[in-house]
Each structure stands twice: as C-alpha cells, then as structure tokens.
Amino acid sequence: MRYELLVGLRYTRAKRRNHFISFISIASMLGIAVGVWALIVVLSVMNGFQKEVRARILGVVAHVQISGEDNRLANWKEVAREASANPEVTAAAPYVNGQGLLMFGSSVRGVVVRGVVPELEQRVVEIGTHMVAGRLDSLVPGEFGIVLGTGLARALGANVGNKIALIAPQGLVTPAGIVPRIKQFTVTGIFRIDYSEYDSGLALIHLADAQKLYGMGDAVSGVRLKLKDLFQSREVTRDLFTRLRGDLYISDWTRSNANYFRAVQIEKTMMFIILLLIVLVAAFNSVSTLVMAVTDKQADIAILRTLGASPGGIMKIFIIQGAVIGLLGTFLGVASGIPTALNIDVIVPFLERLSGIHFLSSEVYYITELPSDLQRGDVIAITLVSLVLSLVATLYPSWRAARVNPAEALRYE
Questions:
Q1: Residue 93 and residue 168 share a domain
Q2: For the residues 385-403, what does the mean pLDDT come to?
Q3: How many domains does the chain have?
Q4: pLDDT tops 60 at residue 205
Q5: Which of 106, 276, 297, 386 has the smallest set of CB atoms within 10 Å of its CB?
C-alpha cells in the first residue's frame, strides 16, 4: 500500500486531538448523505408524478395523430392502412373532432365533441377502462348516445339515461336565416380519467352520429394511432411524413402536450439544482475540516517532508482524507435514498396515520397517492455529482498542506 493512502486512511479514522474537527467531519458527511438522500427521493417522486399523469393523459390521447386539412380527411381508410404498415403501429382508429354546447335543464357547458368507433377506439386508447358508469361500446350508430366525463356530468347535473341537447356551431341555412343545429342525445356512460381537461370538457359520441351532426359525409377529422413503444413516437412521425401523401398534419403525444411536459422537465431540472445545493454546502464544509486538519497536522507534514515525501504526496494524503468523507456520505445517502424511494407508498401512509393529516387530499389533488419511479440514470448522476463535488472540495486544503514549510512547522516543536 502506498504511504499516501495509508496515512490518509489513518488520519480519517484516528481520534483527533481537536474534537471540533471530528464534529465538522461528521457533520459534512451527514450533510452529503442527507442531500443525496433528498435528491434520490424527490427526483423519484417527480418521475412518478410525471409517469402517472402521462399515463392518464394517454388514456384519451393517441400516441400519434394524423389529421386532414381543415379538419377533414376523406381517404382515411387508405391513410390508416398505409400508417399501419409501419411496424411500430399496432392499431388505428378514425375520429371526428368538433365543438359544441351541451344543455341539460338550465345548465349549459361548452365541450369538445369526439366521434369514435368504440371497438376501434378501445384499441388505441384506454378510455374504456376508465368508465365509472355505463360502457363505451354502448355508443351505437343512429341511437345518438353520448358518454361524458365526470366533471362535465357533474356540472350539467346529468346521469346515465338523461337526455341532453347538443348544439353544433355549424348552422342550417333556412329562408328565415341561419338556424343552429340541435340534436338530442341520451347519456349512456360516464368516464373518469382524473385529468381535468378531459373530465370536464370532453364528450364522446359515435363516429356516424358525429358525421351527421357536423355534416362530414363519409369524411373524418383524422386517424389516431397506437404504437408498441410510445417513446418511438417522433421516429414514427418522421417515417409517416415520408410514407404518406397529401395535405396532412401529423403530430405525436409529445407535441400535443409539449407545454406540460416541458414545464415538468424544467421543474425537475430546477429541483435537481436546488437540492444539489445541499450536497454542495455539505461538500464544501469538508474544506474547513481539511483546513483545520492541515493546521493540526503541520508537524506531521513537516516530518514526512524531511523523510522525503514530495509536495504531491502530501496533497494526495489530504485528498484521500476528504474523498473518504465524500465517499462515505454519498454511500449513506444512496443506501438510504433507494429504499425510501422504493417504499414511498408504504412510508407516506404511515406518516399520514401518525400525523392524522392526509397530504394529498382528493378534494384538492387529482393524484391522491404519492407515486415513485426510481430510475437508475438519476441515481448514477447524483452519485457521480456528489463524488466530484467532494473531490473538488479537497483541492485547496491539500494544496495548502503541500506548501507547508518543514523548517517553519518544526521551529516551535
């Protein structure tokens, strides 16, 4: 074993004459551990929230969406067939998008109306699994049934079996002027995605009924696609641009919800930087520890220099001492952060029972349980950053130790 490593490890575990130095060393180590622990847990929880909300959004949003010019696509069957030739595409479903006003009693609400074919739609999105009343396949062409989100049904005061009026913005031209197109629909189902934009503003009807209501004929608004791997959506979109012909607009789920996912990513980055400051402060606490250790060990340094130790060797001794503090702190943080992140679904309910406080009330939040998604890349990045900061913090004190003059240090010994 090289003497630098031997002496550095000995200084780390030896009982110092100055107990204050030992206290600061322990405080620095615990500070690094707490910072690493907090980073792992918080980033895992943010990953969990992002994954949970993404899953709920994709419950009604297709992975890739192809729409025609002016919201009209006549040859949709051909487009669906050509798009399905891509090996990543597993299902395709036509849709009609429109806007309207729903009226029930004295309540009026503006909604996005989507015409779908239930058996095809359920292959593309999972909305059929989120029904709280009725069934999605209860939408039958010609019977004018409608499925509402829970927030929308609550705002209208409507339940399954009630008849509500849908007013389409496309009016009928008559000798008396333009008359709004009004059609009575029967509520056949209610769904709950736990995402306000859809629960409170989306209504589903059968594709054939939507084509009649909005005067589409045999045309649709577009085609929605489901992929084997949703993270391949951009590559599939680029392939479809070259594969398909005509005036088409192709977008994937990352673009249709770009503002939300960009905001989540920025928030995650900022949380990483803010919590990294805890590690930074703790790591640079080791600077004061090593500076005092250098002052305390000046005589030892002088003796080592007179025995032939080089300035570089002295630097290595104190770099090793500081690196051990950072290594132990990082190890403790990782060893406590990973189990906490993996068992957050057990820890949080225990704390709620202990304190009598429900942290995520269903009356306020759409997600009432604290999700966690521990990712290996986050743990590796946090570990490496913590070790690098701990190592950088040792450079200045080690440089000072290497500059100790043996004659000056031993003058009063």
A1: yes
A2: 81
A3: 2
A4: yes
A5: 106
Burial profile 374-401: b = 16 or more Cβ within 10 angstroms, e = fewer: beeebbeebbebbbebbeebbeebbebb
Residues 372 and 317 in one domain: yes
Asked whether residue 97 carries a pLDDT value surpassing 70, the answer given is yes
**Number of separate helices (H) and strands (E) present in the chain:** 16, 10
Write out pLDDT tens, residues 308-320: 777 777 777 778 7
Residues 94, 237: one domain? yes
Task: Flag whether pLDDT at 234 surpasses 70.
Answer: yes
Residue with tokens 């004459």: 17
pLDDT of 73 strictly over 90: no
Q: Select from 236, 255, 274 the last residue of a domain.
A: 255
Q: Is the pTM of this model over 0.70?
A: no
Is residue 40 within 8 A of residue 382, CB to CB? The reply is yes
| Phi, psi of 130, rounded to the nearest 5 degrees | -105, 15
Is there a single domain that holds both residue 216 and residue 90? yes
Q: Do residues 285 and 21 make contact, with C-beta atoms less than 8 angstroms apart?
A: no
- d(Cα 323, Cα 12) in Å, to the nearest integer? 10
Q: Is there a single domain that holds both residue 233 and residue 309?
A: no
Alpha-carbon distance of 120 to 116, in angstroms, equals 8
Same domain, 46 and 102: no
- What's 225-277 look like in SS3? EEECCHHHHHHHHHHHHHHCCCCEEEEEHHHHCHHHHHHHHHHHHHHHHHHHH
Segment (H or E) for 333:
helix 311-342
Confidence of residue 19 (pLDDT cuts 50, 70, 90): low
Verify that 35 and 109 share a domain, yes or no. no
Cβ–Cβ < 8 Å for 279, 389: yes
Query: Could you give phi then psi for residue 142, rounded to 5 degrees?
Result: 90, -15
User: Do 218 and 122 meet the contact criterion of CB atoms below 8 Å apart?
Assistant: no
The predicted-structure confidence for 194-204, as pLDDT tens digits, reads as follows 777 788 888 99
Number of Cα atoms under 13 Å in the Cβ half of residue 199: 15
Per the CB < 8 A criterion, the answer to whether 128 and 139 are in contact is no
Domain boundary among 255, 282, 314: 255
